[in-house]
Request: fold
Amino acid sequence: MTMVDRINTASRKVPVWVLYVAGALWPAWLLYLAATGSMGPEPVKALEQELGRLALKALILGLLVTPLRAVAGINLIRFRRAIGVLTFYFVSVHLLVWLVLDVQILSEIWKDIVKRPYITVGMGAFLLMTPLAITSNNWSVRKLGPKWRKLHRLVYPTVLLGGVHFIMVGKTWEADALMYMAVIVTLLGWRVWQVLTRARVQKPKQPLPT
Ligand code: HEM
Reply:
């Protein structure tokens, strides 16, 4: 048995609900750390940052599923919907922390969105993700048919905006943010290359989630 077979066999044993439960509890754990003083002198900012990074990692993980299967043979397709739904949940909590714990004043929210370009870009990413989250149920997948797959291409500008948002948060060119962006550009570049060369490695075509 090869290493890839081992990974695939092991991953098949993990029920998808385990991922949902772990993912649902993660922000709660971060919130607990912030509330109990384990996140340093600026817990709200630290919480915002941790949640933002978590959301971006989850977005990237979702984007990794297809190349992982095509290039390495590692099949995580059955986790893809959970990864997508959890990503939206992480971004929503990230946004809520900003609204409820950071800005707080209703009249300041719109001002912040318009005046701070990194917030504008983050909000753009959130808005692009929203239709994906709404249509992540079986009914929408059936109802939309091939349009569902087309709609889900919105994930590409979403992750790009997420990466740009991270770069813009820093006052200088932060190495961390640039590294995330390099990974994002590589993953998007891989897809462009796939389309250009028409070398669709995924055979048979990926089934729609059931
Ligand atoms: C796909 C959507 C989003 C992603 C992937 C994302 C990701 C991130 C990342 C990676 C960071 C930086 C973490 C660090 O510095 O360690 C961050 C910071 C932040 N984000 Fe987002 N974000 C998104 C949407 C939003 C939205 C919608 C808002 C609010 C409207 C927002 C507000 C903030 C704030 C206030 C910070 C902290 C800035 C600071 O350090 O002072 N983000 N986000």
User: Anything to note?
Assistant: The mean pLDDT is 92. The pocket of protoporphyrin IX containing FE is lined by residues 45, 48-49, 52-53, 55-56, 59, 91, 94-95, 98, 119, 122-123, 125-126, 129, 158, 162, 165-166, 169 (CB under 6 Å). Residues 43-72 form the longest helix (30 residues).
